Amino acid sequence: MQIKLIESAEIAPDVRHFVFEAPEVETFTFVPGQFVSINHVVNEKKITRAYSIASAPSESNRFELCLDLVQDGLLSPRLFALQPGEALEIRPPLGMFVLRNPPRDSVLIATGTGIAPFRSMLQAQLNESSQKFTLVFGARHEGDLLYSRELEGMAAKYSHFQFLPTLSRPGESWKGRSGYVQEHLKEAIGERRDVDVFLCGMKAMVDDVRNILKEMGFDRKQIFYEKYD
């Protein structure tokens, strides 16, 4: 499937938000939490990289991605140099990192661009009658908290959505939580053990949180994860 870049914008240092269009279809269909795989030829070799969709499904053929720049990466420098109107080849959306059906109260744990699938889920699912969501979002600096205004707006609008950002390298003006996401699991989960927990971010964080959750008494069937490394 061919996609075309509509626009992109820097939303944090070395992080860009992309809007793509799939001209071959009227509606770009996917389930929140799924990913697309971009195919590209680099040095005469075809490479494939998977990226979580960062927007909710709509009736249009557009979708959004949130990508960070890997300086020595094979594909991300090419994507960051992409100009509106240029085309790429992708595989249709795939992935099982999706909310349970029927819905259950869920705790979402993200670091960095691992926020992408959770933005998709929240945009699609959070409403007046939806299940309860708690999002713990970890970043180094305040400027790295991607989509923070949007998430703060959701939390202000819906009492059953709790947004818990935390910084590992906070500045002097930061008044919120500090430290790694692991340090805020107790606050996010409390004594409940009947919730699903979704993890998305770097491998070290995901592996560490999975071990903590198991020690807390969570069954592995309640823990869903994707690793970005």
- Strand and helix order: EEEEEHEEHEHEEHEHE
CATH domain class name of the largest domain: Alpha Beta
Largest pleated sheet: 6 strands, antiparallel
How many structural units, i.e. domains?
2
State the main characteristics.
229 residues, alpha/beta, Elongation Factor Tu (Ef-tu), domain 3, Rossmann fold, 2 domains, six-stranded antiparallel sheet, 5 helices, globular
Task: Draw up the topology in text.
Layout: E1 2-12, E2 15-21, E3 35-42, E4 45-52, E5 62-68, H1 76-80, E6 87-94, E7 106-111, H2 116-125, E8 133-139, H3 148-157, E9 161-167, E10 177-178, H4 185-189, E11 196-201, H5 203-215, E12 223-227
Parallel strand pairs: 7-8, 7-11, 8-9, 9-10, 11-12
Antiparallel strand pairs: 1-2, 1-6, 2-5, 3-4, 3-6
Condensed summary:
The protein has helices spanning 76-80, 116-125, 148-157, 185-189, 203-215; strands at 2-12, 15-21, 35-42, 45-52, 62-68, 87-94, 106-111, 133-139, 161-167, 177-178, 196-201, 223-227. The protein is of the alpha/beta class and 229 residues long.
